Every structure is written in structure tokens, then in C-alpha cells.
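Re: the 63-residue chain
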Amino acid sequence: MGLTTTAAERLIARAWTVGERHRLTGDHALVQAIWALEDAIDHHTTDVGHAARRVEILIGELP
């Protein structure tokens, strides 16, 4: 998945909004996935596209 940094940052902003709406804490998988995506962008710890897909999946699983 070719994801630009700008698109990934927009996804992060949307994910944080969703997380706040659901009052998620650091032990929730979505919050951890957001952190992983931020790390992927900032520190190249993993593939940005893979991390972004995980965030999208977890957003979709929320009620």
C-alpha cells in the first residue's frame, strides 16, 4: 500500500478522534496500533502501509 506521510497523518488524526469518542486507553489495540503507525512514520520501525491497514481494521471493528 503506497501511503504518503500526509495520508498516514490524516489517518492518525481520525483514529485519535475515534479513540477519544470511544474513551479508549493505552491498553486498547487501536491505541497501540496508532502508536505503531506513529513509530513507523517517525522511526521506520515497520512498514507504514501495514501499520495503517491495522489501524483501519481496528477502527472498523469498533461499534
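The CA atoms of residues 1 and 53 lie 9 Å apart.
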